[in-house]
Amino acid sequence: MNKHTKIFLISLYILYGWFLYYTYVLIDSFTFDTEIIFFIVILIILMNLSMFYNYKSKVQTAIFLPALIPAIVIFNPFWNIIIATLGSVKFMKFKEGKLIWYKFIFNRVMLGLSAGISAYIFNIFYVDYFNNNIILSILIASIVYFIINNLLLFIVINLSEEKQEISFMVYLTELSKNIFVSYFLGLLLYFSYTQFGKLFFLLVIILIYIVKDFFFSRIQLLNSFTQVIESFLKVIDSKDHYTEGHCERVAKYTNKLCDAANVNQRKKERIVNMAKIHDIGKIYVDDEILKSEDVLSDEEFKEMKKHSKYGYELLKDIDMLNDDLEIILHHHEFYNGNGYPKGIKEKEIPLGSRILNICDSFDVMTTGRSYKKALNKEETIREFERCSGKQFDPELADEIIKLIKNGELDESFKDKNI
Question: CA-CA distance, 63 to 47, in Å (whole number)?
Fold first, then answer.
């Protein structure tokens, strides 16, 4: 621990002690309520249950403030300091032998001070500014709690020898999300406790944890899916250096064309993900064919045409992918039925495949091959016009032509005569 951190922590502990004494003096009578024990126990349980991490800053998030909000409303600032200080103890740290005493004290002081000040602010706004409007008063208290809590944490991180590269904007962004989630959950828990009692309050907490864990598991699944996609991208690029970056460019164009065609967000994400790995089947194609700088022979082209089916067969047993693999299988089908592997036509071809066919072709047109020069902007437009209704869905061909004419794909023609 460096000198600046020590000075800050000593100052913070002095402030904590002074504020604890100040709020104690404000109490007319030192009355202990057994409900205080109830909240301390509930908070300890919540702090030692599963927590999840914010993706960018890795800051831990637990359902602490929402469960504390009823206490902020019901009890005075002094008791809120006590409740938050004792209720935030993590016994897992003792059990795992990972307790670092100065971090342990800092976390208790930080949460106690945040809770006490937010309770103090709640009382001021509830009585003096909002005419006993509890909804607005809890909102202000929640914002104050988050500002103090995250500000103290941010300062310590940036003063300590363990300084992390986290920008204040990342903190601010995640702060804004967490404030309103905690606020609404806190309102729910407050009214549950005051209107229906402890049992209902506990049932709502259990429900919140069930929902939280469900959504967190979904986030983990999406992260795993992204990692799988990125791994496949690396495999494709390592196999075919000549078209390195092709799948990523096609995915970018696919995203734009989906927007132009008013594809809904969920379907768009699925199509774009398939675009990123649409050529995965090429790993089964002979290297000599992939790296050939000449026009392919009939036999070589016949083998190359199998890559879409190879990709489908390779991925069909992966549960998170198999619902969308028809997009990969049919991305070389032609609108007039002259494509492959099955020769289906028009609307028989999945929408994602029709979009991917256009974006895949656009990248080939604008990057060229050793045996075929890249097309400029006007030549690309003419090619889409010529093949509309033949290779390409005419409605989607019109949309990509509009994107080209509007300059939204100009960077694809950079260093070329556009």
Answer: 8
> Are residues 373 and 267 both part of a single domain?
yes
pTM comes to 0.54
Domain containing 7 — which CATH number?
A: 1.10.1760
Helix axes 134-159, 3-26, angle to 10 degrees: 150
70: three-class secondary structure by DSSP = helix
Three-state DSSP at 18 gives helix
Instruction: Give the residue among 4, 77, 70, 14 at the shortest CA–CA distance from 43.
Output: 70
Cα 174 from Cα 228, distance rounded (Å): 26
Here the CATH number for the domain that contains residue 396 is: 1.10.3210.10
Q: Do residues 97 and 236 both lie within one domain?
A: no
* pLDDT tens string 140-199: 999 899 889 888 888 887 787 555 555 666 656 656 667 888 888 889 999 999 999 889
What own/partner pairs with CB < 8 Å and gap ≥ 24 does 262-266 have? Answer: 263/351, 263/355
User: What is the tens place of the pLDDT at every residue in 40-57?
Assistant: 999 988 887 754 444 443
Task: Tell me: do 190 and 274 sit in the same domain.
Answer: no
| Residue whose tokens read 């006490």 | 116
Give the Cα separation of 23 and 80 in Å (integer).
Answer: 10
